[in-house]
Design goal:
By secondary structure, this protein is of the alpha/beta class. Helices cover 38% and strands 15% of the residues. The protein has helices spanning 8-17, 35-38, 80-94, 108-120, 137-145, 171-186, 207-225, 238-241, 248-262, 277-290, 306-313, 325-340, 348-353, 388-393, and strands spanning 68-73, 98-103, 125-128, 150-153, 163-169, 195-200, 229-230, 271-274, 298-299, 320-322, 359-362, 375-378, 381-383, 398-400, 406-408. It has a 7-stranded mixed sheet with strand order 2-1-3-4-5-12-11, with helices on both faces. The chain has a 4-stranded parallel sheet with strand order 7-6-8-9, with helices on both faces. Helix 7 (207-225) links the parallel strand 6 (195-200) and strand 7 (229-230). It is globular, with a radius of gyration of 21 Å. The protein starts with 7 loop residues before the first helix and ends with a strand. It binds beta-D-galactopyranose.
Length: 410
């Protein structure tokens, strides 16, 4: 990701004018994929072992002032976190920091151990994407005692005062985009209906999952209330539709049961609203094997996972909400550098950083149980077969093969 060189004068003017809101327009967003080439130090292979949670081989780059960044990612079995980990590592190493990167195989105890290890290694700052947002209070109390600042990455870590900042996408908007997509595809404000819909949400241990579900449900609830939308299974609460660990097989099995119980009499399914791509993959498989209807079911997702983009090309999934995690890594880098320089970043970071993507500074939405956590929220994008090339290929995030299928860069 190239950052515009912003003169001190321009930065101060921008800081004054944009103090409360978003930074530069996303229209000129450069591809985070260029992060792949941004780091000249990116030479040594990182030998991070996914399932053992071992720490990655230490980077050879000379650290910025001897400083080290500890990065704890939840797992490699959910596609996006592979990209998050590599983009974060590349961004920090491109600025000369040493990086210790761990993946914890979606095992909560393993992630606690991995973070303990990073603290024992005296990292200068922690960037943590929690497996379970409620499970890190004790280990992060050790980080606080050691004066190690913690950035809660993508998923808000709860019930600990050790968190300095939160960097994510606007998670409620992710769901809202899914709900609005369904509303518009069915033309719910004008069509007679009724239409049948089922919901599949994410992991209850993931603070994001509730935001995704509520964002979508808040858009669609008025149509459910007036009978335009019907939920044959009757499953409309988050806990009824949640999917532990965002697991594809669990999502598929639950949806097979729903189809067997409520649709085997020929009832038409019009929409399967899924909060992300790993669950959408399971639901799509269930529809493929267990749904007898001849209609094309509207299926939503999130993340732009490779298999789901292929399903969109093949007409099996209708949309995904894309989040450019390459940009999330850039925002995290600049926030961490400011913290390590002894600053207390606020909205001014957005203006002075000169990012080529939109970001809002939020001091109202994310209370982690100990108080509001100041947050930097990037903006998600709806991707369909119609705009996939423009949003994903032309921006450099993916390449496209001869068969028209997309493959992530990095
Ligand atoms: C969420 C994340 C999403 C989703 C899920 C599974 O917290 O924000 O991108 O895919 O985890 O990784």
């Amino acid at each position: 990701m190239k950052k515009k060189l912003v003169s001190a004068v321009l930065a101060s003017v921008m800081a004054a004018s944009l103090l409360a809101g978003c930074g530069s327009a996303a229209g000129t967003a450069k591809t985070g994929a260029s992060a792949e080439t941004a780091s000249s130090e990116e030479t040594a292979d990182t030998a991070d072992t996914e399932e053992s949670g071992e720490e990655a081989a230490e980077e050879t780059a000379a650290p910025a002032g001897g400083q080290t960044v500890g990065i704890a990612m939840p797992t490699k079995s959910l596609e996006r976190w592979n990209r998050d980990g590599s983009y974060l590592q590349e961004q920090f190493e491109s600025k000369g920091y040493k990086v210790e990167l761990t993946y914890s195989d979606n095992k909560i105890d393993q992630q606690v151990k991995d973070i303990e290890g990073l603290i024992a290694d005296n990292v200068n700052i922690l960037v943590v994407a929690a497996i379970d947002g409620e499970s890190l209070s004790q280990v992060l109390a050790l980080a606080k005692e050691a004066n190690i600042p913690v950035i809660s990455y993508d998923r808000l870590i709860m019930n600990t005062d050790a968190i300095s900042y939160y960097v994510s996408f606007d998670n409620y908007t992710v769901g809202k985009l899914q709900g609005e997509f369904v509303r518009d595809q069915l033309d719910l404000d004008n069509a007679a209906g009724p239409f049948n819909i089922e919901f599949t949400a994410g992991d209850p241990a993931d603070n994001n999952a509730g935001f995704f579900f509520n964002g979508a449900y808040d858009v669609l609830k008025p149509y459910i209330d007036d009978g335009k939308l019907v939920v044959p299974s009757g499953q409309t609460s988050f806990n009824q539709v949640a999917t532990a660990q965002w697991d594809t097989a669990k999502a598929m099995s639950r949806f097979q049961n729903i189809l067997g119980s409520y649709y085997s009499d020929g009832t038409q399914l019009d929409v399967a609203l899924c909060s992300n791509d790993s669950t959408a993959l399971g639901v799509t498989q269930a529809i493929g094997s267990d749904y007898a209807g001849s209609n094309s079911v509207i299926i939503t997702g999130q993340d732009g996972d490779e298999a789901n983009l292929a399903n969109i090309v093949d007409g099996k999934q209708t949309m995904t909400v894309y989040k450019a995690v390459a940009n999330e890594a850039v925002a995290t880098l600049d926030l961490a550098v400011a913290i390590l320089n002894g600053e207390t970043p606020d909205a001014g970071l957005i203006a002075s950083a000169g990012w080529d993507f939109e970001c809002a500074y939020d001091t109202a939405s994310y209370d982690n149980g100990t108080g509001i956590i100041p947050s930097y929220l990037l903006v998600p994008t709806v991707v369909t077969g119609d705009n996939m090339d423009a949003e994903l290929v032309d921006t450099g995030y993916y390449t496209k093969d001869d068969q028209g299928y997309l493959h992530p860069v990095g």
